[in-house]
Amino acid sequence: MKYLFLVPALFLITNSFGQDAEIVTNSSSNYGAAEINSSSTNGLWIKNSSVAEDMEGSSYLFKNWLNNAIVYDIAGKRYNLPNCNFNIESNRIEAQLDDVKGKIFAFNTRDISKVEINNKVFIKKNTNKGTNQLVEVLQQGEQTVLFKAYDISISKATINPMTQQKMGKDKIVVKSNYYFEKNNKVEEIKLKKSVLMSLMDDKKSEVKSYMKENDLSITKEQDLIQILDYYNTLIK
């Protein structure tokens, strides 16, 4: 079954995107994956730009675009899209469609409530980067939630002191920060035992014993998820 993809009135949200955004006046495409309401301003078409030749790495979370995504907007509408990726630098979900050559559809993050992609769930939270930051939900219990926020930095290539020329290429490096939510309060945390113990102070002794018995480390993501899941069982 094919659906009609219509994105009119894109000028209303152009300012939400970077300078690479390009409004496409004839933006209909029969690609058989999802339907965006004709009155929607959930995104716009942008140029499909590749990484600069003098850079290594990518600002996209996934290595390729072979990812199906389910995008939920704030109105409750659901979009099933193929060929998606998460642009960390721009904080948005993008879809690369085969029948729209050279262009990518970029969702307006302000209008998104949740995204499911590659068995990862992203929601918006207020982080150090703003109120509409897409973060990955790592753990969710009745009392605690653990989020992972992605960011990028540029690792500069070494400069030859004799020639003052770069010895290689600058590199895009993907970084991550962790946020902890308890009692509706969200705060960035460091993966240190003292920090986590202070957040679980009411059950500190039980948690410490559990970690020791199961040889768990707070610095390991999967171990941390297991620790928080256990903590939630103690405070039901």
Description:
The chain has helices at 193-199, 204-213, 221-234, and strands at 4-5, 29-30, 43-47, 55-56, 69-73, 78-81, 84-87, 92-96, 103-107, 112-117, 120-127, 130-140, 144-155, 170-182, 185-189. Strand 5 (69-73) and strand 6 form a beta hairpin. Mean pLDDT is 79; it is low at 1-41. Helices cover 13% and strands 38% of the residues. It folds into two domains: 4-189, no CATH class; 191-236, no CATH class. The protein is globular and about 55 Å long. Helix 2 (204-213) crosses helix 3 (221-234). Strands 4, 5, 6, 10, 11, 12, 13, 14 and 15 form a nine-stranded mixed sheet that branches. The longest helix is centred in the last third of the chain and has 14 residues, at 221-234. The chain is built from three helices and 15 strands. With 236 residues, it is mainly β.
